[in-house]
Amino acid sequence: MNRMNVEQIQQVAQQQWEAQAEVKEYMSAVNPPMPKIDVIDYPSALHEGGLTRVIPFDLSEELQTGYPATSPNLLASFLKISAGDTLKTDAKATSQMFYVIRGKGRTQMKHGTIEWKQGDLFTLPSVPDALHSATEDTAIYMVNDAPLLNYLGVEPTKEKFTPVLYTQERLTQELADIRKIAEGRNRTGFLLSNPNFPITMTLTHTLWALYNVLPAGVAQKPHRHNSIALDFCVAAGPETYTLIGKDIDADGNIINPIKAMWTPGSAFITPPGWWHSHHNDSDQDAIVLPIQDAGIIMNMQVLDFQYIR
User: Fold this and answer.
1) What's the mean pLDDT when you consider all of the chain?
2) Using CA atoms, how far apart are residues 126 and 128, in angstroms rounded to an integer?
3) What is the reported pTM?
């Protein structure tokens, strides 16, 4: 290649780089319109039948991403695994959460084998793949941070933690203990944490999880936060629900709320920054498991959790 060709190639490249140098007037671009995040329900009917498969909550079209996503940072899915089947997951993610809705089986990955059953919750780091085998008909709620890595254009190169298993027995006992401590308070639950993250005290460095009971006849006052909540209903009676809205009035009531029902085995999205209150008008205690991107939001110190006293 002669000198002239090299100079021509450089000139073309220079012109291409300069052509991408855009500018935006400050006031017209400082708060750009972003893709809308709605309150969306994912019913238990999605995983109650059918073949072994991954059922992603894919809102990539609404969020205008080129990859599967339920929120800008997270992807939620149901895993349906028939008895005797094995299902492989291979998310390029730094954090993965699995809650066993029903069934029994094991998950094999590079660190070993996790034996699990209904009501167990476990987390995996950035393992290359995981094989989930069911000895009974199984459904699992899975959330990972693959969309965050896709947005950044990166792949995981370092595991930030090792696998963690929270058994159903442990969760039940902890909730019973917390109910004694928190008797009379408006909120009764506990955060799942990992010793590798002592500053945020979260499930992983990106994921946040709350195991929260809503006693029969109780209404929790509105609260809000800048993280998106992917809420999973573990247990609930009839007329148990969340009211969700952008604003509250002078009395602390949510204005024009959307009503998201709590149905066991189902999930729904609570948009970031929206006020929401939980209500149990039944005679049965209810349990909800919200998974949020609050690990990373909290690390940025912009979670801004607020609640009505």
Assistant:
1) 95
2) 6
3) 0.95
